[in-house]
Design brief:
Elements: H1 6-10, E1 15-20, E2 25-29, E3 47-49, H2 51-56, H3 58-66, H4 68-76, H5 89-121, H6 125-128, H7 132-135, H8 142-149, H9 151-170, H10 199-226, H11 232-253, H12 261-285, H13 299-325, H14 340-367, H15 390-432, H16 441-454, H17 461-473, H18 478-482, H19 487-494, H20 500-532, H21 534-547, H22 563-578, E4 583-588, H23 590-601, E5 610-615, H24 619-626, H25 628-631, H26 633-642, E6 647-651, E7 679-681, H27 710-725
């Protein structure tokens, strides 16, 4: 259990940790103080709590929101429809797209240090007036000035490195090291021995991303200081920095054998050190740099080129996913027909664009003292141009369009979906409560509405489709980015007689900028709340359970994978307990996913003494549909066969998260008949009338608790009897 306390899980006020540590530990009732609440006679209850891995540390929880685009980029590859990935193409494309997110953040930092303050603000008196933190830079020539400011994005890369490497200590499992594999990447299946030992791959990717970011800063610095005065040294340094970027991109695209990692890592560090030191030294040595009005040389083209590369990568990822989708497992009813990979990849790019656009525009807005300049409304000459690249203008406009279209999709689809959900809820209520008095009608209506609202998560498909379509249409702006035409400039060219359309476009774009900024600020406020409030921290932790379950095989700066510690811990603990007697692994909510992953990792000698009890489980509703290749119906059937179908799954119609696993109309025809015995439906509430000995009707339990119900104890006894007979 992640969100609840150990006392709540065990249902006893006094517990003691018997294994693990404060980050993730195993708890029992203190000896001599009774048994766990509702425990079956003769059964010792032990709870595993991993809440500190996702929501226990305030700084970690708050920083997770800032790492959201990296998390989405890492998540994309796990949503692929099938395990088949010939030549590792889809994984390589996802890693390249993840690398573009690092480049996007680095270019934004270059924009708010070197481009806006160093190149566009400091040379103008009105811009630097009254700002001692900028005015001292005017004493430095342009070359040394840009070299000093380039240290800021390089330092930010060092911070990302530190955050990523620091997490390895708390999330490191205490299992034995896996056998040496042929390749660094391990995404074969959840039953693969080394899939949860991701630190080796993460460390490798971390060095590549730092090299990619450093190469981006080096290229921007050399191009800026060499503009108009190219010589042999400048050309050589540009080739070295660009070669570093290309080398990192090639490493991301390729599937690297384990034996090559050491030599390539040393070569990469040499290239990073030589390129960065040489570029900084060359820029610092220049006293005369050709300074022009407008963007820093090469910066606008670099941002536009990045947007174009991201658009091309999204198209390629979608195309490869469509081809792979034809071979997806039968019965794997994946969300959006298996197109989750390009969808989440597009979301990662969109969120990263929102972050970078907000950062650049808010910096420009602060520097130009409240103005929002564009080609139609330029700033005064004494203040400087202070114009962000046109790619960010298009990103703001596309973000506003996406928000409007998605809002419209929700407004159109939810009413129709609500009618379907209410019809289903009406059938459930008529079946469960056939004869109720008229006095129970209000309670019956409340139960019906609860059931209808619990299925709202399954109606989000059209909204996600609308988002994906808008993201794809946003790629049409790539061509305009490359030629430097912004929204207001395009409107001015289309309406040559009057500039009213251009001014209107400018105001609409301003609205988009502010809306995106408010959304990003809202995330920052949520992060601050998570830092200060344990309740908010737990809520964020529950949401992050979904995104940080998978190993970081794509982006190393994503929030760490807590399952990399939890699954090896659970596997080792279950093996130790199974050596003493039968073990029923009981998993609630997201704990059921960890329980399933643990069973898939258990050695053959431990399986005969293990049974599985899941309740409030999202295994089918969320994971089998989002991740058909790794937790689809075939994997769930393999899970049941491993433990000889000693498995019970408790679920309720009122539960918004948990659902049945095999008892649904979409079940594949090749699922064995014994799978029908897994799901046990609980009527919730047991009655809509007031019991004779009570004063109020039974509550609607929804998602929690399950372990206090009689059906839970019946399932425990049934599974124990099965194992004892075996």
């Amino acid at each position: 259990m992640s969100g609840a306390s150990a006392e709540a899980i065990v249902d006893h006020p006094i517990v003691v940790r018997v294994a693990g540590d404060r980050h993730a530990g195993f708890y029992r009732v203190r000896e001599g103080l009774g048994s766990a609440g509702g425990a079956t006679a003769g059964v010792v209850v032990e709870a595993y709590r991993w809440g500190a891995l996702t929501a226990g540390v305030a700084v970690r929880t708050a920083s997770m929101l800032l790492l959201l685009p990296f998390m989405l980029g890492n998540l994309a590859v796990w949503l692929r429809p099938t395990l088949a990935d010939r030549f590792g193409l889809l994984g390589g494309l996802c890693r390249l797209l993840a690398g573009s997110l690092t480049v996007a953040i680095t270019l934004a930092l270059v924009g708010v240090t070197m481009n806006l303050p160093g190149w566009q603000c400091v040379p103008h008196v009105e811009c630097r007036d009254g700002r001692p933190y900028l005015s001292w830079l005017v004493a430095l020539p342009m070359g040394p000035r840009l070299a000093v400011l380039a240290l800021v994005p390089l330092l930010a890369l060092r911070v990302f490195w530190a955050v990523g490497s620091r997490s390895a200590r708390a999330f490191e499992g205490f299992g034995t090291e896996p056998a040496r594999e042929r390749f660094l990447e391990s995404t074969a299946s959840l039953a693969a021995p080394g899939i949860w030992h991701d630190e080796r791959m993460t460390s490798w990717l971390r060095q590549i991303h730092v090299g990619l970011g450093a190469g981006t800063v080096d290229v921007a610095l050399v191009v800026a200081v060499s503009h108009g005065r190219w010589n042999g040294v400048a050309v050589g340094l540009l080739g070295l920095a660009a070669g570093l970027v290309a080398f990192c991109a090639a490493l991301l695209l390729a599937t690297v054998p384990t034996g090559w990692a050491g030599p390539l890592r040393r070569l990469l560090w040499i290239l990073v050190a030589v390129a960065t030191v040489s570029s900084l030294g060359y820029a610092a040595s220049l006293r005369e740099v050709a300074v022009g009005v407008g963007q820093m040389p090469g910066y606008e083209g670099a941002v536009a080129g990045l947007f174009a590369a991201q658009g091309l990568l999204l198209v390629l990822i979608a195309a490869v996913t469509l081809v792979r989708q034809r071979t997806r497992p039968a019965g794997a009813h994946a969300l959006l027909r298996g197109l989750g990979t390009p969808l989440v990849a597009a979301m990662s790019v969109t969120v990263a664009s929102a972050y970078t656009t907000t950062l650049v525009f808010r910096t420009a807005d602060q520097l130009d003292r409240g103005r929002i300049p564009d080609p139609i409304r330029p700033s005064p000459p004494a203040l400087g141009p202070l114009e962000p690249p046109v790619a960010y203008w298009w990103a703001a406009l596309a973000g506003l369009a996406a928000l409007l279209v998605v809002t419209a999709a929700v407004a159109v689809t939810l009413p129709a979906a609500r009618r379907r959900r209410r019809a289903y809820a009406r059938r459930v209520v008529e079946r469960d409560y056939p004869d109720v008095p008229a006095s129970a009608a209000p309670r019956l209506h409340a139960v019906r509405e609860t059931i209808a609202s619990s299925f709202v998560t399954e109606e989000l498909g059209p909204t996600l489709v609308a988002f994906f379509v808008v993201s794809s249409l946003g790629l049409a702006t790539v061509a305009l980015d490359l030629v430097g035409i912004g929204p207001t400039q395009l409107a001015a060219r289309l309406n040559r007689r009057h500039d009213a359309l251009a001014v209107l476009t400018a105001y609409v774009t301003d609205i988009g900028i502010w809306i995106i900024s408010l959304l990003v600020v809202g995330l920052l406020v949520l992060g601050y709340r998570a830092y200060r409030s344990p309740e908010t921290r737990r809520l964020v932790g529950v949401l992050w359970d979904l995104g940080t379950f998978w190993p970081r095989t794509v982006h190393p700066f994503a929030p760490p994978c807590y399952a990399a510690r939890a699954v090896p811990e659970l596997t080792r603990r279950v093996c130790a307990l199974a050596a003493r007697g039968p073990v029923v692994i009981s998993g609630h909510s997201h704990g059921s996913v960890l329980a399933a992953a643990t069973v898939l990792q258990l050695p053959p000698e431990a399986l005969p003494r293990v049974a599985l009890l899941t309740h409030g489980s999202p295994l089918y509703r969320v994971y089998a549909r989002l991740y058909p290749a790794f937790l689809g119906e075939r994997v769930l059937c393999d899970l049941g066969e491993r433990i000889d179908w000693r498995w019970r799954n408790l679920w309720r119609d009122t539960d918004p998260i948990g659902a049945s696993i095999f008892d649904h109309p979409d079940v594949a025809p090749d699922v064995p008949p014994v799978a029908a015995t897994v799901d046990v439906r609980l009527r919730d509430p047991p009655s809509v009338t007031v019991a004779p000995a009570d004063t109020v009707p039974p509550p609607v339990e929804r998602h929690w608790p399950y372990h206090t119900q009689p059906e839970y104890q019946d399932a425990v006894r049934f599974l124990l009897d099965r194992m004892n007979r075996g």
